[in-house]
Specification:
Rossmann fold, 3 domains, eight-stranded antiparallel sheet, 18 helices, Glutamine Phosphoribosylpyrophosphate, subunit 1, domain 1, binds 6-O-phosphono-alpha-D-glucopyranose
């Protein structure tokens, strides 16, 4: 989605803002802009990515030690220079950057326009600048002004406004906003006796990745909280005042962030996506060996639940489907997987709430910020579900909104398409299933996860061959991935990677369903990828492969055994049968990555999609 960054301190703000915005480009972008203050507010903005707009407009040469910046991912209003943020109030004394959707913007805009405000963009966000301008004409304190503003806005938002005395004000509601502080101290009150935090510099961002290289100290704002940032009286330090929902100054905890978030370089790899695919040689093992205290807590919640729903979006939903299979197979727990955006329409969810005394929702999300998932959690809360979550960002909104959470510990994932986070989610689900089985007095199989690095390395060793396969099929229009049982979830995930990275139409299909319709699409130009492990699905898979082969399809077998029907084989080593699905997704990730390169698509930043979708 959009990303926000703001700075106030002793350094030039503009270069810091440009760098931070590039770090958050994974959140999506179509235009970029910044505003700084040095006696007056200056704004530069335009369509394109951060480096392009910067090279065209020299964003990083703006003066001033305070500023705000934004990358936009359009929701209201076309992609254009004028719709790019920051937005100015009529008199240019307030500049605003906003992430989220102001749902009542049409009514607000109409009212403001009738009072003489002139709008320059088509965005919902611009109303915030005009509302602030209006509020500043009233004899309110800034605290009161923010309180009044938040009462007027409906929808989801995080925003930061730069005011033409150099002050920053802002708030969050259902969109992330984190305040990073260098050398923070709570060594006193301001002139009014209010609780304040003092620091050398203040960074305000949608993601800690934007400021982690400068500080590991942060304040996480809760929904409905707002803030004011100004210089302290000495002008040497900045002063941050945080207000609760009622507009009262509040004493917030300063959190220490894990430094591993700082590991956001591509290293020797051409793209983050490729780096993250390779990191699976250790992230699978790391996720499986989750911290035992938290794991114990989650197991207790699972065992005590009388109904379980697992939810997620995109790849995390595919992990939820894996959970359904693993829970029933390894520990005899029955659960339903519901895609997060459908939770509200799910009759099951409501029936569960009515018929169960201890319903549990397990929410899976890499970012912990996906709006659809957070919305499902809110609905479930209202129906008395307990909430357990599996996240990669332990400080995320989802982790904070859960009764208990586990981290997959995969480190930052920058590539928009989920790769290492998906296999890490799976690995953790294996571990959870095994622990539940032990707790239930069953004798679960011992899983050889310790060898995962060898197996992943072996699959990665075939990358040059997979790149050749990608070259052979790069001009195809559609790819069908057929599979049975738990492997169907992997087929869906493989198809999603091909769509996201290479812009190829791809579908995951239950192999047995091929004959009930999709076979009509298969001809001599079709590519069929068959997920065909030597397990209980093998025999019936061969039948479906025959059906496709007989219609002339090119067959790519992803398998641990050879078969004469395959035109290409993406080999999986002989691994533990139960763990096999963990590995079979990796050649599909590599195939999608290399097809993206052959088709001139940027695999790190696919068009039209964002890594963290914080709007419904
Ligand atoms: C976006 C991304 C997907 C991702 C999904 C869920 O749609 O494009 O790749 O799987 O969000 O993200 P989450 O952070 O909740 O796992």
């Amino acid at each position: 989605m959009c990303s926000i960054f703001a700075y106030k301190g002793y350094r030039d703000a503009a270069p810091l803002i440009v760098k931070a915005l590039s770090r958050m480009e994974y959140r999506g972008y179509d235009s970029v802009g910044i505003a700084t203050y040095d006696k007056t507010i200056m704004v530069k903005k335009g369509v394109g990515n951060v480096s392009y707009v910067n090279s065209r407009l020299n964003l990083d040469r703006l003066h001033g030690r305070v500023g705000i910046g934004h990358t936009r991912w359009a929701t209201h209003g076309a992609v254009s220079d004028t719709n790019a943020h920051p937005h100015l109030s009529c008199n240019g004394t307030i500049a605003v950057v906003h992430n989220g959707i102001v749902e009542n913007y049409a009514t607000l805009r109409h009212k403001l326009a009738s009072e003489g405000h002139v709008f320059s963009s088509d965005t919902d966000s611009e109303v915030i600048a005009h509302l602030l301008e209006d509020a500043l004409t009233k004899p309110y304190s800034y605290d009161k002004m923010l309180g009044k503003l938040l009462n007027i806005l409906n929808g989801s938002y995080s925003f930061v406004a730069l005011i033409n005395d150099g002050m920053l004000v802002g708030a969050r509601y259902h969109e992330p906003l984190i305040i990073g502080l260098t050398n923070p101290s709570k060594d006193g009150n301001n002139n009014n006796g209010d609780d304040c935090i003092y620091a050398d510099e203040c960074f305000i961002a949608s993601d800690v990745l934007a400021f982690i290289e400068y500080t590991d100290k942060a304040v996480f704002l809760a929904d409905g909280e707002s803030f004011l940032v100004n210089y302290a009286d000495t002008k040497q330090r900045v002063m941050v005042k945080i207000l609760d929902r009622d507009g009262n100054a509040t004493n917030k905890e300063i959190t220490q962030i894990a430094w591993e978030f700082a590991d956001v370089d591509k290293g020797r790899f051409a793209h983050y996506t490729l780096k993250e695919i390779h990191e699976q040689s250790y992230t699978i093992d790391r996720a499986f060996n989750a911290s035992s205290d938290r794991l114990r807590e989650l197991i207790n919640v699972l065992i005590n639940a009388d109904r379980i729903i697992v939810t997620g979006s995109g790849s995390s939903y595919h992990a939820a489907l894996i959970a359904k299979h693993l829970f029933s197979k390894l520990c005899m727990l029955s659960c339903d997987a519901i895609v997060a955006s459908e939770f509200i329409y799910s009759i099951d969810a409501y029936a569960y709430a009515n018929n169960a005394s201890k319903p549990l929702l397990i929410a899976i999300s890499q970012s912990g910020e996906t709006a659809d998932v957070l919305n499902a959690v809110r609905i479930a809360r209202g129906k008395n579900f307990k909430i357990a979550s599996i996240v990669n960002a332990p400080l995320s909104t989802l982790a904070r909104a859960s009764d208990t959470y586990l981290s997959i510990n995969a480190g930052p994932e920058i590539g928009v398409a989920a790769t290492k986070s998906f296999t890490a989610q799976m690995a953790l689900l294996y571990r959870i299933s095994i622990e539940v089985a032990k707790d239930k007095g069953m004798s679960p199989p011992a899983l050889d996860i310790g060898s995962s690095n060898l197996y992943v390395e072996r699959i990665l060793g075939a990358e040059a061959y997979i790149s050749d396969v990608a070259e052979s099929i790069k001009n195809v229009n559609s790819i069908y991935i057929i599979a049975k049982g738990i492997h169907h979830a992997i087929a869906l995930e493989g198809a999603l990677k091909l769509k996201e990275l290479a812009y190829v139409h791809a579908e995951g299909i239950h192999a047995g369903e091929l004959k009930h319709g999709p076979l009509a699409l298969i001809d001599g130009k079709s590519i069929v990828i068959a997920l065909n492990p030597m397990d209980d699905t093998y025999g019936e898979m061969l039948t479906s492969i025959h059906e496709a082969k007989a219609r002339g399809a090119c067959i790519i077998g992803v398998s641990d055994s050879r078969c004469s029907m395959y035109d290409f084989t993406l080999a999986i080593p002989r691994v533990d049968r139960l763990l096999y699905p963990l590995y079979e997704v990796i050649p599909l990730q590599l195939l999608a990555y290399h097809m993206a390169l052959k088709r001139n698509c940027n695999p790190d930043y696919p068009r039209n999609i964002a890594k963290s979708v914080t709007v419904k």
